[in-house]
Amino acid sequence: MHTDRKTLTPLKIGELTVEKPIIQGGMGVGVSRSNLAGAVAAEGGIGIISTAQIGYDEEGFEKDQAGCNRIAIRKHIHRAKEIAEGKGLVGVNIMVALKHYKEHVQEAVRAGADVIISGAGLPMDLPKLVGNNKTKIAPIVSSRRATQLILKMWAHRYNRTADFIVIEGPKAGGHLGFSRDQLENLETLDYDHEIREIIACKAPYEEKYGTKIPVIVAGGIFDRADIDHMTELGADGVQIASRFVATEECDASDAYKNAYINAKKKDIQIIQSPVGMPGRALRNEFIKELEIARKPITKCYNCLEKCEPRSVPYCITKALIDAVRGDVENGLVFCGENVDRIQKMTTVHELMQELCYGIGS
Prior knowledge:
GO molecular function, one term: nitronate monooxygenase activity
Protein name: Probable nitronate monooxygenase
Low-confidence stretches: none
Strand content: 15-25%
Organism: Blautia obeum
Number of helices: 14
Keywords: Flavoprotein, FMN, Monooxygenase, Oxidoreductase
Pfam family, one: NMO
Order of helices and strands: EEEHEHEHEHEHEEHHHEHEHHEEHHH
Number of strands: 13
Number of domains: 2
Oligomer: single chain
């Protein structure tokens, strides 16, 4: 047990403050909904709900995905806030690549989301969609170039800047803003340098708008030592996803959680997603079969803006729903680079104690 750690500095986002500068990453479909996000917020962090096909288990989803997703966004934000009991913050992760991106943003704002984090594409219109509401907004970026582009465009078009920035590194799970070559040769990337560059390029906008733009770093962050390293690079907080899957409160099935706990390094694979981006997932029967032939799509779930069902290798909605429900061999199980280091089931409270204070690590 290590108790000599410095206390982590609370995270300030505008007028909002959270005691613990830890954001639980948004994981879809259905992996992080109200149960997980509410538990993280209750511990003084920021709990994030993924809106990607969030209503998959709502009655009527097979016929009306868009309507069920809107109902579920509202329901899970309200439920997470009830679980949090006024502590921490509750927000959503909304992928730019979604067909109903605009509706998801507007529904989250109406439901009282504290923050919206947006990636899987460049969220150029996010300020317009949120308007003058109090919901805080953050783009997910993986490069200095993308950061500069977004901050410049938001300033030019909407005369505003990001409330915070999430830098997602190459060791993250799910969809990634890197080439397959970069992801398969991680040792050649000096990503610490890129993080410093991204942090540096926000300074003119902080000066212009008289505000601090906190930077959160995500991707492969496993323990308190990783958090301390990111703080030394200049980060104000971290976003962690994979570790929260192996908690009792996570919204995924036990089979899904056990797939993480039992995963070995050799099981981690870079795949191509119908979103058009590479992703990191656990190698299973589903992925092995994809290497032989595409999986014909018999039903479209209207999830992605740029999806052509006749040509994409598989239906990502069906693959993710099958997995979160427990069919982890025939579904798609996204994961982070350090998933093999997860050895046991824990609780959100125990995990937050370990991350913040080194207790139990």
